[in-house]
Structures are given as structure tokens and as C-alpha cells.
Design goal:
Length: 70
Amino acid sequence: MLETIITRQRKFEAEQAISDLQKRGFELTFPLTEFSRDGKIFDRDSYNRHTLAGNSFSSVWKAKLRKVDN
């Protein structure tokens, strides 16, 4: 069996990729889910020490599909 993992930044792009693969004979094994994480951005001050410059947020949409054998 061939498994495919879809990873997209935007939900509508992931939904379109899933529908395209389902038309080609794939079935959804793991539903479309949003994964998010926080990160920190550091900068250096005049004494060359790390200082917190801010937080960064990113999220991706993932789903897993499997090829159906006929």
C-alpha cells in the first residue's frame, strides 16, 4: 500500500489536494488536522548577548491518505 501525507499551509489548499487524490483512488486514513507551534526569535544586544525579540507562530494542515488496491 502506498501512503501519502499531505502538508499545506492553508486549509483550502489541503482540501483541494485531498479531493484530487480521492478522485485518483486514495482513501483518507488520518483526517485533516491543524498542527501549530510557537517559537521564539532572538536578537543580539550591544554586548552581544541574546535577547528575546518576539514570538513567532506557525501552523500547517496535515492529512494522510492511502492508495486503495483494486
